[in-house]
Give the backbone structure.
Amino acid sequence: MNIELKIYDESYQNDAISLFKNMYLELVYAIPYLPKDDEMMKQIDISIQHIFKYGTGVMAFMDKKLVGYFLGYSVPQLFGPVKGIYSPMVGHAANKEYRRLIYAKMLEFSLKNWVDQGYLSFATTLLAHDKGVLKEFNITGFGMRCMDSIRKTSRINTCVDDVIIHKAEVKDLADISVLHQYHHEYYRSSPIFMPREPEDALADINEWMSHENHHLWIAKKDNQAIGYIRIQPNGESIVSHNHQVMNVTGLYVLEVCRNSGVASLLLDVVQQFLIEQKVDLCGVDFETLNQRAYQFWNRYFIPYTMSVARRIDERVIS
Ligand SMILES: CC(C)(COP(=O)(O)OP(=O)(O)OC[C@H]1O[C@@H](n2cnc3c(N)ncnc32)[C@H](O)[C@@H]1OP(=O)(O)O)[C@@H](O)C(=O)NCCC(=O)NCCS
């Protein structure tokens, strides 16, 4: 079969929206509680219109019909001091038939165009259900970096002796800021290696708490702060913005207190709160490079996206 590749063209935006929605509904078939209401469909429309306006990329055609698109946003520095392209979950889709082949062709064509323009770092968020697409990115040199995951709000059966959890108030923020600082620095460690600028942890957590519908809990043992968890209405993916979803955006337990159920207990307290608030879904995004997070979240949540990244050797353009 003949797949024709072209630079993207805004006039195909509505066809692209249909392609993406079909793919998203395949994901919903695999995870039936994912949002699929009018709000979600509208959010998909807006996000695809945005990337067609401000992004760059390619389209694939068979018999003059759009069968795939792959667009991303230009990022001045992506995972290092080189310019890159980030393609979010709505940034690409392809017909179910020949999907892997269409992606292979779009990757070859788009990477050539982008590398010719000096882009050397690439990240793409893939819908988690299609392992063929993931494989195509993997064999093209893209490695796993992060995930968005979700669970239906429900209690977690756990119990930890001598640990007390309560909802944090302003007077708790000084204690939490010490843990928040450790958490911030943790991402520099092996095997994560994410550079982090020094920050004022107390100012940061105070600022975070000042926003509406941001909630924080602290775990204490012998009156010492040993862990915290926080939730908010928005995470990073468009699914996380849906009104049915609240998102965990921070969880940390002191190293000496790990592996005894403290984080599970914190998560259970969040579940109780969300049940009371009638929030049906709980989301989280995390670095898969962070082995502890990968292990922990996969125990309680189902991944709905996987983000992959590739850094190209700069000598190819020198
Ligand atoms: C990820 C993190 C929060 C987990 O905290 P934790 O308190 O060790 O988590 P838990 O104790 O609930 O679960 C860890 C292990 O303890 C075991 N465990 C022991 N007692 C338990 C109990 N009573 N209830 C539940 N789990 C228990 C679990 O089975 C689990 O084992 P597994 O990892 O082999 O599946 C912690 O490692 C951490 O702070 N990491 C650094 C920061 C970080 O990565 N944060 C996540 C941000 S996205």
Notes: The first helix runs from residue 13 to 30.
